[in-house]
Design goal:
551 residues, mainly beta, Methylamine Dehydrogenase, Chain H, six-stranded antiparallel sheet, five-stranded antiparallel sheet, 5 helices
Amino acid sequence: MFVLPPPPPRYTIPVAYAAGAANGMAVPVVETNNTISHPEGGCPLQVGEGTYTLKDDLLLATPPPHPSEAPIINPNPLATVPNPPTCVFLKAAVSAPQFGDGNSALAPPAAPPAKDALKRRKPKNNIIKSSSSFVSRVITHETSAKRLNERDPNGVFAFANINRAFQWLDITSASKEDHLTKVLFTKAHMLCHDINDLTKTSSHLDIVMGSSAGDIIWYEPMSQKYARINKNGVINNSPVTHIKWLPGSENLFMASHANGVLVVYDKEKEDALFTPENTGIPEKEIPLEILKSVNSRNQKTNPVSSWKLASQRISNFAFSPDQRHLAVVLEDGSLRLMDYLKEEVLDIFRSYYGGLICVCWSPDGKYIVTGGQDDLVTIWSFPERRIVARCQGHNSWVSAVAFDPWRCDQKTYRFGSVGDDGRLLLWDFSVGMLHRPRAHHQNSTRQRTSLVAPNSQSAPRTRANSGANRMRSDSERTENFYSEFEPVTSHPIEPRSRTAMLPPIMSKIVGTDPICWVGFQNDCIMTSSLEGHIRTWDRPSDSVINSATSL
């Protein structure tokens, strides 16, 4: 099952008008239906194992903004497009250590009687009949009920957003361009969402969505029920930049906010005005300021826990396969590794320059890959706690990275990256090549120049990068302060002369607008773009490597 969550928070520019009148006057954008095309022989991906063929291009309709909606300034000086949809592949649910183990206040409720074993608790409010000013309207397709009754129970649902619309789609349907339900919000855009692996069945899905207003929606699409969490920012009033269910938990999910705070919420708890429990902590930037601990006995209301990592925006985070570690990337250019069960920051790494935007773990948990504003993809070794390679091939910000578990084993790895340059890149690396330093030390000066100014059209980004460097300087001043908080290790930036440089095995421009997500399935590769293009490439028929189960 796939979920197509909303965009990274850096793209929240609504498009209110489009040129089209003969006299040059702008006319209001009119909402249209999704469309799909099936290009023949267009945009193939040539890789060593064969050719990936573009199967279809699903274009989501861009809704007009709500009349009360105000434009939001985009921090990327090159971005001029609306909010994208993004996609995330849902992995099978697996067992995990319990968050807050030993705290009786967080103990799960008693098991229901056997006859209710397959029932799941649902939110209380009907979103179709909602009178909330937060929800503008809900559009249910006229054939939705029939399609749900007749669909293959093993089919694939997708959830996607573009601007203020949130769509529920059936990707395996013959008419997958027709949404099942479309929810339009009033002033807020949904910036991120996730489906609970543990509770999903053919008749129930628990979805959490984080918005640009800070509000969080718990949504169950089968029953069209919803609940609003952190209403009006009662716990944290800054935008939700990323959201994920805690591995192995039915109720708990983690949300990162734009003010540098990570919050764990319980979908079934009421909210209360939040006042940090820990006082007397010095007002300096520290690796982790615990505003409320998971071990707090005050667990009657949300939040379950709240941690401040920095004053800058948290861009993204990812749970490790061992389901006790967390990789967090921030706008200040840092990658922070946490043991979230112990509420500890273990290591801090830094980008070459500028903020980090995306992060993922290898299927075996040995490597972490990040991408960001320095146009680089970086591979880090988790067991060795060090950088192992820089990957150069993008000409603009790297917006998403993901491993291909069907082409990974314990010796070789495949991952993909996409960026604002409209490119999809595929990368292969092996353990042996990662330990090999870059061959040509004499080229380091030339390559350093190309990284700072990769092309002649990067003048606007030079100003942005100067700001990023200032942020870096501010953050580096805290390194001595970090050393007072053992066991945190703040790692210096590795000189490029001692860092392996990895080239891509495939680089392809797949769209004229920035690409914001890449995901892998056993039979295809998928991407999504800022204008709402969701593209699917079929794998070569004999290219699937069934090695993921050995990891």
